[in-house]
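[Automated response] Your request has been received and processed.

Submitted sequence:
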Amino acid sequence: MLSKDQIAQRIAQELQDGWYVNLGIGIPTLIANHIPEGINVEFQSENGILGMGPFPFEGEEDADLINAGKQTITAMPGAVYFDSATSFAMIRGQHIQLTVLGAMEVAQNGDIANWKIPGRMVKGMGGAMDLVASAENIIVAMMHTNKRGESKLLEQCSLPLTGVHCVKKIVTNLAVLEIKDGAFHLLERAPGVTIEEIQNATAGTLVVPDEVPEMNV
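Generated structure:
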C-alpha cells in the first residue's frame, strides 16, 4: 500500500507544464513537495496566494504564511497575495487547470462528499463547493477505506454531498482509478497490491481490464 506521501507523489505525475493548480486540505498539500523535474506549475490556495511552494523546513516556518488548511508554507519567487474575492474569481472563472481534493466518500458517478459527517461540529465546506462546481479536472487523493476498513468508493455516497458528477480520477493507497460510464475503472495498482485486494476494498462497480500495471512511485 502507498503512504500518503506516495499518493501525492503519484498525483504529481499528472501535472502539466504551465498549469495553475489548486491543492485541497490533507494529502493534496503534499503534492507541492513532488513537482517533476522540468515541470513549471503555479499552486493556488483559496485563502489568497498564487505561487505556493513546498512545506518549510523545521525552524524556517513563517506563521504569517499559511495555506487554506492553516499549515505553514513557503512562497516561490514571484508569488503574489490577494483577497478571497480575487481568489474565488480565479476559481469560478475556471482559470485553474487542476484541482486536487481529499474526500470521505466518492461515488461511481463522480459525486464527492468531503465536508461533513452528520453529528460532528464543522465550520462549513469552505472553498470545496466552489472548486467542484467550477473545475473541469478534479482528482481525489484519499485512502481507499476508512478507519473501520469500510470502502470509501461507493455506488452512492451516504454523506452530504459537496458536488455531483465532478470527479474524474482517484488516487488511493491501493490504486489509480478513472470514473467514467458510471463506474470505477482500474488504471494502476499500488506495488505489491493484488487486483483481488482492490476489488474487496471497492464497494462500487469496478471495471478491471486484462492488464493492470503497477504505479511508478
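Summary generated for your ticket: The chain has a mean pLDDT of 93. The first strand starts at residue 20 and ends at 23.
If you did not submit this request, please reply to this message.
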